[in-house]
Amino acid sequence: MDVKTLRELKPRMTSRFTHWLDELQDVIKQRGLENEVQVNRYLLGKAVVDYFEDIIRLKAFEEIERCNEAKIYGYHAYWIMKRKPIQILPTAEIDAKTLHINELACATMIVSKMYEEKGIDIAQGGAELKRFFNLLYYSFKYREYTQKTLEIMIDAFFLGTTDSQNGVKNMG
Predict the structure, then answer these.
(1) Are 51 and 10 in contact (CB under 8 A)?
(2) Residue 140: CB partners within 8 Å, gap ≥ 6?
(3) Half-sphere exposure of 20 (CA within 13 A, CB side)
């Protein structure tokens, strides 16, 4: 990324950094892991820069001005999981809760964003939501993925929740 582009994008990158930091810290707090893990700001910053570089290349290649939500969520999750900014503290015990914390955070964030995007109450997701979340988390831990495969998965979710009459399929 050239200096001019970096200067132009700095406010958006700073905003994205702050937003991602808040999201990650929320997941850490929800899981009660504040004393076991922390967000490494350098690695998070690297994830943000990589995300923007990737999106800039994508927009140029596809000749588009704006990315759809599926691309944004997919690339967001990919770079968080690639850079792994949530780090286990040296005093913490490494266990199932902390070992895959970045993947857990991304699964949590993606599911939450997708449900919010479709106007679906996450509290009413029930067994389908739990199954989807567990599958996503398992895939992040043990399967290969790219930005594009994450985008396709998110697009499939959006298509699967759309009802031609009222726009949202009942997920409960």
Answers:
(1) no
(2) 77, 81, 100, 103, 106, 107
(3) 33
Which tens digits make up the pLDDT trace of 27-57? Answer: 999 999 999 999 999 999 999 999 999 999 9
pLDDT digits (tens, 9 = 90+) for 115-155: 888 787 777 777 878 888 899 999 999 999 988 888 888 88
Spell 30-44 as b/e; 16+ CB within 10 A means b: ebebeebbbbeeebb
- The one-character DSSP state at 40 is -
Specify whether the CB–CB gap between 125 and 146 falls below 8 A: no
Q: What share of the chain is helix, strand, coil (3-state, %, to 5)?
A: 70, 5, 25
